[in-house]
Write a structure and sequence with these properties.
- With 880 residues, the protein is an alpha/beta fold.
- Strands 7, 8, 9, 10, 11, 12 and 13 form a seven-stranded mixed sheet that branches. The protein has a four-stranded antiparallel sheet with strand order 6-5-14-16.
- The longest helix is centred in the last third of the chain and has 30 residues, at 850-879.
Length: 880
């Protein structure tokens, strides 16, 4: 059999070589159709420091779902791939590799070291692309970019120079966050504040020329080496007599003044505050107000410098121990009080960050932030999903500080500034003419170039670039909430400044992937999950299904192998359904399918179950598309799962056996055509989420050609809608389910025939579907009528549109049956209460769509009818 699927779904076999076939067929490239609406995404670039993690797998999965669906819907789609050079992280990784061979970067020099980094980049970029292939992401590799590409570098230089010429980039000495391990400046958002154990050290400073002392408290006693004043509040009566005098710093014996400043809080501690301007942001502000000297007492690597006297050369924490011991010996260490406090750590290296005075390059943020804030009130506003993250974005922009953009690294975009021996500085896109110029050795913060990603990758600064004109602004960005400040915000204000447009229309924010206990995945906990390991065991489709269905936008998700098992089982279920259909319908032609569907729609052939499944397929396609458009992939997946597993596989497939095992060949042809059509549409609906196995089955269907990647996405076909059939089969399913439940309660297997009575206003319908009732409930005698005598001793059930009775004399206990019905009555009362509460809510009735309100009213009528019928049956049993 040419179209036969293997008896058991094997993800390794299904996915092997599939990605390469897609690439060879160029199905991921834009259609180039000028009449199609463009839809573009730029991938959040992974950095080239190693393998993809689950968070990035989540990003790429959701973006691939979006772009695959839009491609199938006929959009001219572009998904542009690329990678980030990740200055600090990559340089640290390469330096660590060299250290294994006893080589320091300084031993090689800048150029040779950069050659090693480029080797690293090529190695890990290849790995990442292989992993993208395993994930199945449908990017256009002909447009792949890297943040250090010449085109992107040109964009970086242009942006830097233009901002500098406007006065929005400047060079100055300010207090910044310093990473002593990477030996570079960090921006505020590259500092992670962690709660750690520390201490308050209470130290006395002697008043010059007297035996009097003042007491200060600090968590960093080593910083007293850089003190240039102590302050008190001018309203503090305790210290008024000391203002204008000096204190003597212990050990180093430097004299510093006592000043007044409102920064000193009379209610906090002793009310005396030491001022270390070069190592504390608040102290820096005090020093600026009082024109105090600023003494940097630390080297780039976190050791004490020449201003530290006898402590010169010691690591900062070793110096702390020595200083505390020396203060204790002098009698000037009053107390040590343990404290739990937050301390800044480098987001990249994990070490404690040191606030430090340093000459750096900064972006002046006030105007850029103002523009970004104002834009969110216009038609060009970026739409955040969920909307609450717009508030996160706005709050950060309203409180943003100037951005330190220089990094003391070799790997990155070297700052386009040059200096000569005359002390002159030149800033330009190219080096200045003439001799004697030396380029600034620092590089730019990685996020400076990444902030330009949506438009620099499209060919900007050439605004006539075909891609820039066609695909910018991009349509949707998908990323985690932890990167809003690092990347999303910066892309928005830079794009507004240099293109006059928002960089994207929508931003879909997802959460973090946690372990099964809800903990954040980390190396220290050893609870990380490698997505490639998951793919090796379960396949990419199962992982993608889990990632897309794990949570709502903005919410964290817990990784679970039980959920991976469930995803694999779901795929295997579809696989088996497909095998059954292909074995029974492999020779059905396209014309036969089209003709059969027309006849079913016109009700000239087919049966009620055929019309029902086509109606349900329409409803599923409509609802899934609506939810996908809202980025509610979890809801869309739930709708698909219920339709495929319950309605299509468990019910329609089983109901068709009444036809397939019958004698009417014409009816069989209709059923085969409907089975094929529904399977075809199911595969298309699933394809954006699970691309590999859907393609495998799709290409084995009769009448299909080409790749499912570019097949048309399902649309609602109004001619298939049949509300009467939908309501009828719903009653049939409810009836069969009720019979099975009753049989289970009295331990009567399906193999044992029992009499059955159905009392219903829809008796004609139930008589028409009686062959299905007989096949699935095995009645010894079936009576269906609008009115009939109710047997005294019978199990009963109330379903929509009917009352069901199974006379099981001798098998039932009347008291137990009454108790069972009373539980059922309570269930319907609970449903009534819920619906009445919803309909009694004036806001719901006023704001909900009319069809939603009507649906609740229909529920109310249905539940009320069931409640009344059960109540009446209880009364009958009690009377008898």
């Amino acid at each position: 059999m040419t179209n036969e699927l293997t008896p058991k779904f094997n993800p390794t076999e299904v996915e092997a070589g599939r990605y390469e076939k897609w690439l060879e067929a160029d199905v991921f490239k834009p259609s180039g159709n000028p009449d199609a609406e463009p839809y573009s995404i730029v991938i959040p670039p992974p950095n080239v420091t190693g393998k993809l993690h689950l968070g990035h797998a989540w990003d790429t999965t959701l973006q691939d779902i979006i772009i695959r669906q839009k491609r199938m819907q006929g959009f001219d789609t572009l998904w542009l791939p690329g990678m980030d050079h990740a200055g600090i992280a990559t340089q640290a990784k390469v330096a660590a590799r060299l250290a294994e061979d006893g080589i320091l970067p300084q031993d090689l020099g800048r150029e040779k070291f950069l050659d090693k980094v480029w080797e690293w980049k090529d190695e890990y970029a290849t790995t990442i692309k292989e992993q993208w292939g395993k994930m199945g992401i449908s990017v256009d590799y002909s447009r792949e970019r890297f943040t250090l590409d010449e085109g992107l570098s040109q964009a970086v230089r242009k942006v830097f120079v233009q901002l500098y010429n406007k006065g929005w980039i400047y060079r100055g000495e300010k207090l910044i966050n310093w990473d002593p391990k990477a030996m570079t400046a960090l921006s505020d958002i590259e500092v992670i504040h962690k709660e750690i154990d520390g201490a308050f050290y209470h130290i006395t400073y002697q008043i010059e020329g007297s035996d009097e002392f003042v007491e200060i408290a600090t968590t960093r006693p080593e910083t007293f080496l850089g003190d240039t004043a102590v302050i008190v509040n001018e309203k503090d009566e305790r210290y008024k007599h000391l203002v204008g005098k000096n204190v003597i710093l212990p050990i180093i014996n430097r004299v510093i003044p006592i000043l007044t400043d409102d920064h000193a809080d009379m209610e906090k501690g002793t009310g005396v505050v030491k001022i270390t301007p070069a190592h504390d942001p608040n102290d820096f502000e005090v020093a600026m107000r009082h024109d105090l000297p600023m003494i940097n007492m630390m080297n780039n690597d976190g050791t004490i410098n020449e201003n530290g006297g006898k402590y010169e050369g010691l690591d900062r924490f070793e110096a702390r121990k020595q200083i505390v011991a020396d203060l204790k010996e002098l009698g000037q260490l009053v107390d040590i009080k343990p404290v739990r406090h937050e301390v800044g750590h480098s987001e990249r290296t994990g070490v404690v960050v040191e606030p430090r005075l340093s000459t750096q390059w900064f972006v002046k943020m006030d105007e850029l932030a103002k523009n970004a804030i104002a834009n969110q009130t216009t038609e060009d506003a970026v739409e955040f999903y969920p909307p609450r993250f717009n508030d996160t974005f706005m709050q950060w922009m309203e409180n943003v500080h100037d951005w330190v953009i220089s990094r003391q690294l070799w790997w990155g975009h070297q700052i386009p500034a040059w200096y000569n021996e005359a002390g002159e500085m030149y800033v330009g896109e190219e080096a200045p003419e003439g001799e004697g110029w030396t380029q600034d050795e620092d590089v730019l913060d990685t996020w400076f170039s990444s902030a330009l990603w949506p438009f620099s990758t499209m060919g900007w600064p050439d605004e006539n670039s075909a891609d820039f004109k066609r695909y910018f602004p991009t349509s949707t960005l998908v990323t985690g909430y932890d990167i809003i400040f690092f990347w999303v915000s910066r892309m928005i204000f830079q794009s507004l400044e240099f293109t006059g447009k928002s960089p994207f229309h929508n931003v879909l924010i997802h959460g973090l992937i946690r372990d099964e206990e809800g903990r954040k995945m980390s190396k220290s906990l050893g609870n990380g999950i490698d997505p490639m390991d998951v793919i090796e065991k379960y396949g990419a489709d199962a992982l993608r299904w889990f990632l897309s269905n794990g949570s709502a936008p903005g919410q964290d998700v817990r990784f679970s192998y039980d959920k991976m098992d469930a995803a694999w089982n779901f795929i295997n279920k579809i696989w088996n359904v497909s095998r059954y259909i292909l074995m029974n319908a492999e020779d059905v032609s396209a014309d036969a399918v089209s003709s059969a569907l027309t006849k079913v729609a016109n009700k000239t052939a087919g049966n009620v179950t055929d019309r029902w499944i086509l109606t349900r397929l329409n409803d599923t396609a409509r609802r899934v598309t609506e939810q996908m458009d809202k980025f509610e992939f979890g809801v869309a997946g739930h709708i698909l799962y219920n339709f495929i597993w319950d309605e299509f596989a468990n019910w329609y497939l089983e109901l068709t056996k009444e036809v397939m095992f019958g004698e009417d060949e014409a009816e069989k042809d209709i059923t085969r055509a409907v089975l094929l059509h529904v399977l075809d549409q199911v595969l298309r609906l699933l394809h954006p989420i699970m691309p590999f196995f859907t393609e495998e089955i799709f290409e084995k269907l009769p009448n299909t050609s080409g790749s499912i990647v570019v097949a048309e996405y399902p649309k609602v076909r109004p001619e298939f809608n049949d509300d009467k059939a939908s309501e009828g089969v719903a009653m049939l399913i409810e009836l069969i389910t009720a019979v099975r439940n009753i049989r289970a309660e009295v331990n009567t297997p399906l193999s044992k025939a029992v009499p059955m009575l159905i009392k219903s206003e829809h008796a004609d319908f139930f008589n028409a579907v009686s062959p299905y009732i007989s096949r699935f409930t095995n009645p010894s005698e079936l009576t269906i009528a609008k009115d009939l005598a109710v047997p005294e001793q019978a199990m009963s059930a109330v379903i929509t549109g009917a009352e069901l009775y199974l006379p099981l004399a001798g098998l039932i206990n009347i008291e137990e049956e009454i108790a069972r019905l009373e539980k059922e009555l309570a269930k319907w009362q609970k449903e009534l209460d819920l619906v009445n509460k919803k309909l009694g809510n004036e806001r719901f009735v006023a704001n909900a769509k009319a069809e939603v309100v009507q649906k609740e009213k229909d529920k109310l009528a249905d539940y009320q009818e069931k409640f009344d019928t059960v109540k009446a049956r209880i009364a009958e049993l009690k009377e008898n």
